[in-house]
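name: query_chain
kind: protein
chains: 1
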Amino acid sequence: MKFKQLTQLTVTIAALCVAAGASAATPKLAIVYDAGGKFDKSFNQSAFEGAERFKKETGIAYMEAQASSDTQAEQMLRNLARKQMDLIAAIGFSQTQAVQKVAKEFPKVHFVLIDSIAKGDNVNSVLFREEEGSYLVGVAAALSSKTKKIGFVGGMDIPLIRTFNCGYAQGAKAANPKTENFSNMVGTTSAAWNNPAKGAELARAQFDRGVDVVFAVAGGSGMGTLQTAKEKGKLAIGVDSNQNYIHPGTMLTSMVKHVDTAIYDSFMQMKNGTWKAGVTYKGLKEGGVDWVVDKDNRKVVSPEVEKKVNEAKTNIINGKIKVHDYRTTSTCPV
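structure:
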């Protein structure tokens, strides 16, 4: 009888150990999108796609929330932290202060912040070398422009968006020194990411000045820029996600920023127990940024343009071309 009871006890302990192991490998995950919204066809959507890829491969679900303001972001992060999440992904620089504050309050909860640096032993900050990817599409724009006038429509006027513009201008000038770059920002608040009418207005004004290729780095506002390019018969360049499919034949290319990979990797690292705090940089060499040639823009990218852009890509990766990062000096060399 005692032997039978002992055997049952052993089986019970073993079952509990298995359950504990399964729990350790099944992290509680969450993601907080910024004001651009989950389906902005750009930055936030890329993050969502990375989380969905993780979910599909592992069967592990995650919680979602969207912050429409900095104050709301802090509240959402804190509410999720109280639910004892293992990892919370905060999408966008606007959540920097909120992450730093909440991470300090909940040292056992881990955070990954996209596009900015927040201090904390439980925070991994992921930064991209946007200037490198923007340089490539700048080369493509200059070589594809017939007027030698290219444009840039940014969302919120912040160093990050100026970094895109500076890299774009550097690539364009390298490809053709006579290229002119006309640039405008939608606004100075988070509302700048959700104003497609303004994005369209700025693009229209640039086209009236002779611009025939425009790079939209404006979240939801950029949708207005891309639509106007189509209506005017001009070329447009998408950002963050591959946006070539939005207006096939009008889209010259997209400067993709693999936020999806960053989120997927962070979730997987948490699952596998390899997640680490610190700062992670992702450029061309790391596969963090790139340009896109696919079925939707194949007809508007000439073999010469593709060759030149890929040469520039190789030279950036091997160090022969150094692209200036606007954020290091708050100035652009061109």
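note: Residues 2-24 form the longest helix (23 residues).
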